[in-house]
Amino acid sequence: MRVAVIDKDRCQPKKCSLECIKYCPRVRGGVKVIEILEGEEKPTISEEICVGCGICVHKCPFKAIHIENLAEELKEDLIHQYGKNGFRIFRLPLPRKGKVVGLLGENGIGKTTVLQILSGKIIPNLGNFEKDAKWDEIIEKWRGTELAEFFKKIANEEIKISYKPQYIDKLSYYKGKVKDFIDEIGVKGEGIDELMEREMSKISGGELQKIAISVAIEKPADIYFFDELSSYLDIKNRLEMAKRIRELANNKMVMVVEHDLAVLDFLADYIHILYGSKGVYGIVAGAKGVRHGINLYLSGYLKEENVRFGEEIKFEKHPPREAKEQEILISFERLKKKFEDFELEVESGEIYRGEVVGVLGPNGIGKTTFVKMLAGIVEPTEGKIDSSVKVSYKPQYIKPFDKTVENLFSENKKRFHVLFEKEVLKPLGIKDLFDKNLKNLSGGELQIVSIALCLSLEADIYLIDEPSAYLDAKQRMKVAKVIKKVMEKEGKASLVVEHDVYFIDMVSQSLMVFSGEPGKKGRGGGPFSLRDGMNLFLKDLGITFRRDEDSNRPRVNKIGSTLDREQKSIGEYYYEL
Ligand code: ADP
Ligand code: ADP
Ligand code: SF4
Ligand code: SF4
């Protein structure tokens, strides 16, 4: 079976010389395999007669065409196709009562499409995109299966649905207070009492996420969908939300998409991996138990399906040996900063060249204020910093503006270090996004572009605030590698504020830990070794991790379990002795 996808955002017939049509050997031979149909602006490929030579794929200057050959038997499993030469999804996961089912796969592989189908927002067309899809057809096709029974109920509106969308930023456009919003939806707003009197437009991303999840949990429904719950939440909030969702699943169906693997591990009972080719097609693999499913995903290889879909991601049980021979980049005395309502105290410390320092701590505890003091943007109330350093900063929330990615990089070029193309743009695949307007990028693409911009600028310290938001697990690994490499090669240092424990594990050589009372009083210390930093941080949270026997990856212990108690008694919260 041939799958030909034309990315309508990329294809720009006005800017190219129609290379795809010009060079197609079949067109040259007189067969109109690829042509611009009457009344249309962009070309169409007839998949039935295309020979899959791939010439158009290579000739298109905008990389708009993808051609893939798939096994014939998959045809039977086609669930939905977004129009002619559009993305398609094969197979579906099955929601289960009393269980949390997780979807795991890279961005653009069809996770949201699956959630939209199962929530009845998209009626699957089985590939017959030319007419309006009807529920009867899919019910008939899957007759006798649990899935057909499920769709019958969706079609008859016998199942009530609650859906937490991926992007929650739009909630901040709501005019009014949090309590007005909660009242309008008709829920109580449990667990967000402290936010009720605040204006929706003035609250942080983490707070919006909490509201969105709480509202979705409280909505009376039979099935609950959560399309990413972690973005902008700190670890404590992530685990609290995960716990509430687990409780919800006692007698309901729950399905989640989540890229923070420690959270997914804690949250889900079963996992479906989605694989295929990003933007072209996605296949939903069969259900696996959560431990095994995440291990498979990290291994990059699906044994049963015999498919390799990525590099292996590895973890170490023991922290790396410390090598502190490098030169000090910056040192600071004990620092204090007093704002009207907030007070921060940071112990003295030093940061070395080539080092990536993970910065751990809840939201609103003074992490950004500390870095701004290092950068000389905020004057400490007490204490001194030995020299002034130039800081390049990627903020937590990114606002897109109206220009292309290429413009963004060409305009700033004079401020970049010499190796930015080789060390940053290339490994992060930024050039593939050059033609796109920043306003049309997905959340994940915008995140990658912002990280790339930050890392390209000439600076001494790179402060990267929550780089993982909206990135899939693979992209997170890639970003972690690039950050480490730039620091090492350029002899600079990076402070990475992150709440995804697996990301922190991949990227950091040392840790700074902030604790206290968010919004009131914060205390920072470090950089510490990974072992000391993790112990300090997790002790404060009251959480321990054990190691998975097969993959060595850290897994959250159940509070009060034998392992949890044992580890707490010897003070080892994260690494093995
Ligand atoms: P994920 O959630 O895994 O990131 P999505 O389900 O959002 O993936 O998208 C999968 C693919 O489907 C993407 O390549 C996207 O361009 C395409 N797609 C999503 N929605 C539409 C749509 N309404 N029309 C055409 N293509 C779409
Ligand atoms: P984090 O980065 O850990 O989320 P921040 O350093 O951004 O925390 O903020 C810590 C606290 O300091 C917050 O309560 C914030 O409102 C307050 N704060 C930050 N900057 C200022 C300022 N310029 N004036 C007054 N309060 C501030
Ligand atoms: Fe031009 Fe590529 Fe679109 Fe063909 S697919 S019209 S070559 S941009
Ligand atoms: Fe033509 Fe080959 Fe492209 Fe098919 S893959 S449309 S045959 S150039």
Question: Can you describe this structure?
Answer:
The chain is α/β, with parallel strands linked by helices and 577 residues long. It has 3 domains: 2-69, Alpha-Beta Plaits (2-Layer Sandwich); 74-160 and 221-308, Rossmann fold (3-Layer(aba) Sandwich); 341-499 and 512-528, P-loop containing nucleotide triphosphate hydrolases (Rossmann fold, 3-Layer(aba) Sandwich), CATH 3.40.50. The chain is 30% helix and 20% strand. The protein contains 19 helices and 27 strands. Strands 5, 6, 7, 8, 9, 10, 11, 12 and 13 form a 9-stranded mixed β-sheet that branches. Strands 17-18-25-24-20-23-22-21 form an 8-stranded mixed β-sheet, sandwiched between helices. Helix 9 (235-248) links the parallel strand 9 and strand 10 (253-257). Helix 5 runs antiparallel to helix 6. It starts with a strand and ends in a 7-residue tail after the last helix. It binds adenosine-5'-diphosphate (ADP) (2 copies) and iron/sulfur cluster (2 copies). One iron/sulfur cluster is lined by residues 6, 11-13, 16, 18-20, 43, 60, 62, 64-65.
Overall 3D shape: globular
Q: Output the number of helix runs.
A: 19
Q: What's the mean pLDDT score?
A: 94
Radius of gyration: 25 Å
Under CATH at level 1, the class of the largest domain stands as Alpha Beta
Secondary-structure-derived class: alpha/beta
CATH architecture of the largest domain: 3-Layer(aba) Sandwich
Distance between the termini: 53 Å
* Residues in β-strands, percent: 15-25%
* Total DSSP E strands: 27
CATH superfamily of the largest domain: P-loop containing nucleotide triphosphate hydrolases
Q: What is the CATH topology of the largest domain?
A: Rossmann fold
